[in-house]
Amino acid sequence: MLLVDDVIRERLHSEVALVGQVSQYIIQSGGKRLRPALLLLMCGALGHHNTHRHTLAAVVEFIHTATLLHDDVVDESTLRRGRDTANELFGNAASVLVGDFLYSRAFQMMVDAGDMRIMQILANATNVIAEGEVLQLMNMHDAQLTRDGYLHVIQSKTAKLFEASTRLAAVLGQCDTATEEACAAYGAALGTAFQIIDDVLDYEGEAQELGKNLGDDLREGKLTLPVICTLEHAQGAERDLIVHAIENGDLSQLARISALVKQHGGLTQARDVAQLQAQHAIAAIAGLPDNAYTQALRAIAESLLHRRN
């Protein structure tokens, strides 16, 4: 990961001062670097150390960071990872344009691997993520969104880059199709579980620990799995209260809605879905060599349900 950070620092360089300033701010803001870590761990699990792995791990982080810059503008977010968002500090225009820079730099770096399959995977992932973001935008303030509709969005906007990260490890190792699909399945399931837990924490986490404002999903009119599960059980005035908040982005009853989500089992049911996805991830890599890297991949899936930020 230190070598990945070296690549990130080197490739963030730009003659345009604001590009480097915004890029450095968001990259150095304490992110988990989970997606590049998964790529490196999967390479280790498969028993290879392809020389392009650090560059591609950095590519994945650049793509993820670009999505964050754009997301925070769309969502009008002011806090991420416990710090002001880039749009709050530098303005919306700078955030969008530097996000574009990171996307284009990522595609420049992909060429270094000299493999059209790698280009295909990352180009497809980037396109699917963009579609997922637009789909989520279309679903804003829609209190009728179903579980399937919610899962489709998060599997596009979040899980797809996890899937691409772990699939790339198999492609770099020139693995057979079955192994590649197993690696991809691990990433997709893990990414789905990761986002569900992220949505759970918006209703039960602590703002300081979480590093963002609680209730952001409700303010944005974003219907997530804990609330979808709650609406399946809530009736009368309780249901009307939640529907009104989603449709109007009304935070005035956040404490009451959070209590209802807990009371009607929304958090528990969402965690159950996340746990099932984590189990799918573990099952997907059951056929990989049993080494320290594979054990780490299993441990990440097992520990996901206990994350607090």
Briefly summarize what is shown.
The protein is an all-alpha fold. The protein has helices spanning 2-11, 17-27, 34-45, 53-75, 86-90, 92-110, 116-139, 147-157, 159-172, 177-204, 207-210, 216-219, 225-231, 236-248, 254-263, 266-284, 292-303, and strands at 79-80, 83-84.
Helix/strand layout:
Blueprint: H1 2-11, H2 17-27, H3 34-45, H4 53-75, E1 79-80, E2 83-84, H5 86-90, H6 92-110, H7 116-139, H8 147-157, H9 159-172, H10 177-204, H11 207-210, H12 216-219, H13 225-231, H14 236-248, H15 254-263, H16 266-284, H17 292-303
Antiparallel strand pairs: 1-2
What does this structure look like?
This protein has 309 residues and is mainly α. The protein is built from 17 helices and 2 strands. A hairpin with a 2-residue loop joins β1 and β2. The chain is globular, with a radius of gyration of 19 Å.
